[in-house]
Amino acid sequence: MQSMVSRLPLPALLSFGLVAFTVEFDNETEYRMPHWTTIHGTSSSAGRGPWLVSMAMGFNCMFWIPEDGIAVRDLERRARTRTNWDGMRRWGYIHFEPSPEDDRPKPPQSALIVRATSKGRLAQGIWRALLPEIEERWRQRYGNRELDSLRAELTAIATQLNAELPDCMPILKYGLVGEGPRSQKSAANFDNLSDLSLPALLARVLLAFALEFEHQSDLSLAICANVLRIVEEQGTDVREIPARSGVSKEAIAMALGLLTKRGYASIANDPRTIRAKKVLLTPRGVQAQLGYADLVRTIEDGWETKYGRSRVAALREALEPMVGDGSVGNSLLFRGLEPHPEGWRALAAKPVTLPHYPMVLHRGGYPDGS
User: Fold this and answer.
1) pLDDT confidence bin for 185, thresholds 50/70/90
2) pLDDT tens digits, residue range 89-109?
3) DSSP string over 64-80
4) Please, what is the Cα angle at 252 between 248 and 253, to 5 degrees?
5) Neighbouring-strand partners of residue 327
6) By CB distance 3.0 to 4.6 Å, which of 49, 149, 279, 299 could disulfide with 35?
């Protein structure tokens, strides 16, 4: 494989932490909350819960719904990102109704009032309690001083970012790109960042880096970090990419479709076997692969100028001992990733690495595109 940066990019370190927190949170949600999944069916004999989704759907939807409901446009403004409205309704978390003050025969969705269903309210309670609980687990597992240092460095940078950034990674849009803020505001007087959960701080800093990357790149950071980075000079077996990236087959298929459609890669039969396919980079793809490494390095250098070399170094120093290289053998994060025996991840292939960038899709917001 062509040489990437000599040390792991800062967004990869942030991604490892955010994805690990999310998976641990999701595993515990699955254990505690009545739900159903496509593979397992319903989890409770007492009644069918909602379809199981990931933590991001709390941050981009459920955490912002008060008991008496909220207009869709107001929720999106507070969440600072969009959710999968049709999915959240279909999966049993929310329902819509017209505003009592709106006498139009068919109001637009933005004017509708969204309310949590009884199943949605149960999810709200479980999720809100789990955020501090999982963070406390990390504190016990990795150390008070280490968690305090990580939070302090993330907060110091987040304070200087655009305040309109959401508390989660947005659902990736077409092209697997992130959604940027709708306005420019300083975070300094916008909210109390010290009150944010650890995953919210990780997400804000990571998203800020990704948006800067995608402003200068024709390809998203999600595609570059999870697919383009992995493809070797002689080509790579398509079947190997999910395991080597830590990202689901479905998300990889979406990324490869975009790479081939835009002329960065081609898919060919592997002459060694009848059924295998391999992905090969075109000359344009090779340039993009090199450009990815250069741009990540350039942005991180720019952050050292913007936020202070010592600040960026301190953030790295807070992350690196905890997240390692994101692999099962060299990352402490895997200590918290063992699923409950009855969980859906217990039936899936055990991951050997965490994604270098979260692949949050409309399918339920899972950080590995599941």
Assistant:
1) low
2) 999 999 999 998 888 889 999
3) G--TT-EEHHHHHHHHT
4) 115
5) 353
6) 49
